Amino acid sequence: MTGSTVRPPAYQLLADELRADITSGRLQPGERLPPEPELCVKTGVSRSTVREALRLLASQHLIVTTRGVTGGSFVAHPDAEQLADGLAAGFTLLTNSADVDLADLLELRRALEVPAAGLAAARRTEEHLIEIRGALFDPDLDDFETKMAAHAAFHMAVAKATGNPLFELVVRPLYHAQFGADVTANLPADYWTRIDADHRAMIDCITARDVESARRTASSHLDYVGSSTRERQIMPQYGG
Q1: Cβ proximity of 150 and 135 under 8 Å
Q2: Which of 77, 66, 78, 80 lies closest to 30 in space, CA to CA?
Q3: Torsion of CA 202, 207, 211, 216, to 10 degrees
Q4: For residue 108, which of 174, 197, 18, 205 has the smallest C-alpha distance?
Q5: What residues contact 211, with CB distance under 8 A and at least 6 apart?
Q6: Which class for 18: exposed (0-12), middle (13-18), buried (19 or more C-beta within 10 A)?
Q7: pLDDT in tens, 192-234
Q8: Distance (Å, whole) CA 193 – CA 102
Q9: Could you tell me which of 123, 121, 107 has the C-alpha nearest to residue 202?
Q10: Nearest CA to 100 among 237, 239, 210, 240?
Q11: Of the candidates 62, 67, 69, the residue with the CA atom closest to the CA atom of residue 31
């Protein structure tokens, strides 16, 4: 019938209701959801419908289910890595669309990475420094995939060193996007040498707890990435 709307399946409606309870804070991390029989009575749906709703919420990392006498479904504790996986899919779709260009991506990196470098310098621990240093690569010996993995690990470690889990959550999807096979052919000959030097300079600033120098180094680093990518039309999150 024209103008009619299709009603979502019952399990989707139940999942939406429980998701609203979780995201609103009515159900707190670690809190146990009502048992399946109780949910059936409360919502008037079958046990299979309840189980399908719970499976959907588990796939979205909103709940965890355990077995045994003390088992059940519990509200999950937020995990930046798992939450970032969901953001990464949408981010990749946007970067492959006509609505997002290179300038947009570089602008986002600058908005996140410059303040993150300053906060990391102010708040880092020795454990953070070990993790950041462990993300360095050899620009002469390491292959392209190794350098790409290391650069992603470096910026995520700096974000982690801010002590603010939201930085880690938002920065992580930047390094999940796909890149084209033509990237290596388009990079300047000394690109990775400069990226490595910038990363090491940033480590020096963070180690010294020099907030302003860390921010300036991060900004200069992105200036170089931007000039290289604009000249060659490379996605700016793919290197540096």
Answers
A1: yes
A2: 77
A3: -20
A4: 174
A5: 118, 119, 121, 122
A6: buried
A7: 999 999 999 999 999 999 999 999 999 999 999 888 866 444 4
A8: 22
A9: 121
A10: 237
A11: 62
